[in-house]
Amino acid sequence: MKFLKENLNLILCLIIMCMITCVMFYFIDKKEGFHEDEIFSYGASNSKLSNTFLSYRQVDDLDTIIKRKGFFETFKNRIYYFIDKEAYRAEKERLGLNDKTSIWRTREDANEYMKIDSGEEAMDFFTVYWNTARDVHPPLFYFLVHIVSIIFYNKFSKYIIFLINLIFFLGICILIRKIFQKLNKNYLSISSLILYGFSVGAISTVMFQRMYTMLTFFTVWFLYTNIKIYYNDFKLDRKLKLELCIVTILGFLTQYYFCFYVVGVTFTMLMILLKRKEYKKSKEYFSWIVISAILGMILFFPCIYHIFFSYRGLRAEECRFTFIEKLLAFMKNSYWSFGLPVIVGVIFTIILAGIFIWKFRKSGLMAILIVPLIIYFICVVKMSPFRSLRYIMNILPIICLVTIIIFDGIMSNKKFSAILITLTSIVISLYGILNYNVKYLYKGYNDYLKIAEENKDKRYVLICETEFSHIQDVPEMMIYKETKIVPPNKLKYLKNDEKLEGDSEFILSIKNWVNNPEDILHKVLENTGYTHFELLLNTDKEVAKCRIYKISK
Questions:
Q1: Predicted TM-score (pTM) of this structure
Q2: 484-511, pLDDT tens digit by residue?
Q3: What string of H, E and C letters represents the secondary structure of 102-157?
Q4: Among positive and negative, which fits the CA dihedral 91, 95, 101, 107?
Q5: Going from the N-terminus, what domains does the chain have, and what CATH number goes with each?
């Protein structure tokens, strides 16, 4: 009984984490389809041909230009063409690589893109590094996907990234408890795990097969490290220096948005130190942040192009949404994440702000918790290309921490506070799960796969945008005999096609966002010479909305 009493909080936290894990497995079982970015997670991690499943060529342009001549020669040439865009364009023109005529891609091509099915592909981290260099994200997440894909050798499974996400999510839960232990508020750990762990925002984070669960883990770890530095009177011993350096580098190599939070925390820590006139400590702290940033940039040097010159970096084109529109959208997303209607969320925010001003406005610790949140939120609103939940996933547990700490601050009795906040967390979590749909499940996609299985010996024509979003359909392409991906304004690519002329039937898919899909259908018939069509599926479910037809002569 003594052991039980002394470790009751830990035991309850472990039980809650087990329950949350069961909930995560329940929802991953319900996940049927994928966002195109999720498919890219697998392709960029495992494909040796290109980081996107090209509709007009099997092999990536640079891999066509640069014949593999050993590691160092290949690396040198890739760096050259990555930096010198004019030389790259000239070489493409010379080799005739500007032609983007749609070609037939086989099911073997699609399988090669999604999974590791040969010894040559396994442990090829150079290709993963290069695939991410051609994108706008750092490589750490993709390295892990590649490693786990080796374990699932010759098999594609949604559980590959789910397992990665789940491990990091459990790490987040452990960090939450450690933070409360450091704050001497361990009695709030249970309510925090309930409020965050069972929230639709947290579940959606784990279901989304991208790097955002990892980003959340490193964001919370970075906060925890800085709280330890704060409680150590800002003295950086060897252990704290190493931890600060490691978490900063790993967070940076996971997602560049991590930098926004680092800037927020660093600014707050320096302001506290300068207010105390601790100039030597502020210089030392800032120096280690800079050293960590430099090491991260050295480890992944393409980040310089990504951050300063790419379409997602500081030179990103102006978003079609205004700052205010994005601000309101992200506020709504944060309320949605915890199952709160907007009006209730706004009231909560006002109450929290009032309590903070009343009780905590002079607290350096609360400044470390709150100021970086505000700075991160403003940076995301300013820089994000979309109004998507993904960009604030990493601060959801910190919002949870701040909320619980502030409400606990107005209660004098710890036991009463723990019980009241825990019960409130249970009610809010249950309301959210029962009234809000978890994102990124893409229910309905099994209908698409069923049609593909029933027609796996037929060819598949997909009418959609061909630069990126078409890869959402790669799981179907892994089943059909061959696939031709055609943009709606290039239906001429279907004319005089020898393979279609030799078939009696093929499957046609037209995305519903295409203008005048009925007109597109008749133009396809006209270009192919087929005369009959049968509508197999027309769905407006969460998964990519499209119409699927069986076309016959």
A1: 0.94
A2: 999 999 999 999 999 999 999 999 999 8
A3: CCEEEHHHHHHHHCCCCCCCCCCHHHHHHHHHCCCCCCHHHHHHHHHHHHCCCCCC
A4: negative
A5: 8-18+162-435 (no CATH), 445-552 (3.40.190)
